[in-house]
Amino acid sequence: MSKVAIVYHSGYGHTKKQAEAVQAGAASVAGASVELIAINAEGNITDADWATLDAADAIIFGSPTYMGTVSWQFKKFADASSKPWFGQKWKDKVGAAFTNSATMNGDKLSTLHYLFTLGMQHSMVWVGTGLMPANSKAAQRNDINFVGSFSGLMAQSPSDSSPEEGPLPGDLETAKLFGKRVVETAIRFKK
């Protein structure tokens, strides 16, 4: 069995929807146990959530991109993770990340770089999307990896969309494939 924890903050519900799609993809792998951990509006998680992260084989970080980086709530969580960092409790766990913003670019790569750096601080083993981009003339907005990210999962939700309207179906399908890849990597790495 592979234990996966998805720890994320969602300000308006779009990143939560993305996290749920990552969870669905991860849970589709036989032998996977996947838990969602929502960072609350004050930037906190429970002691039980910290224990879940410590016990996980893989941790997937998620945050919306606000002003070119993670939300302040996610940053508060990341700063609090210095306690497990000090004891290297997450060392050699598989790490991965996702983000969402209103624009197609929206400096999401900057957010993924922040999340990657957090994973490296914790001595984690990073997993990217492993997905080729939809970058031909025939590409459609709902194709897999239309946003074209390799280092982590990106999605786009229009600023005036509700969580029911965004992220779009192609981004959510990409999220499922990403979640599945992270679990499969964690299983291989555990052997």
Care to describe what's here?
- It is built from six helices and six strands, in the order E-H-E-H-E-H-H-E-H-E-E-H.
- It is of the alpha/beta class and 191 residues long.
- The protein has a single domain (2-190), classed as Rossmann fold (3-Layer(aba) Sandwich).
- 38% of the residues lie in helices and 18% in strands.
- Strand 4 (94-101), helix 5 and strand 5 (125-126) form a beta-alpha-beta unit.
- It comes from Herbaspirillum robiniae.
- This is Flavoprotein WrbA.
- GO terms for molecular function: electron transfer activity; FMN binding; NAD(P)H dehydrogenase (quinone) activity.
- It holds the Pfam family FMN_red.
Keywords:
191 residues; alpha/beta; Rossmann fold; 6-stranded parallel sheet; 6 helices; 6 strands; globular
The computed structural class is alpha/beta
How would you spell out the order of helices and strands?
EHEHEHHEHEEH
Query: Looking at CATH, which topology would you report?
Result: Rossmann fold
Low-confidence segments, ≥5 residues, pLDDT <50?
none
Terminal CA distance reads 11 Å
> How many independent structural domains?
1
* CATH homologous superfamily (4th level) name: Flavodoxin domain
Rg, Cα atoms, Å: 15 Å
Number of helices: 6
Which range best describes the helical content: under 10%, 10-25%, 25-40%, 40-55%, 55-70% or over 70%?
Answer: 25-40%
Query: What is the CATH architecture descriptor?
Result: 3-Layer(aba) Sandwich
Mean pLDDT: 96
The biggest beta sheet reads: 6 strands, parallel
Percent in strands: 15-25%
Report the principal-axis shape: globular
CATH structural class: Alpha Beta
Number of strands: 6
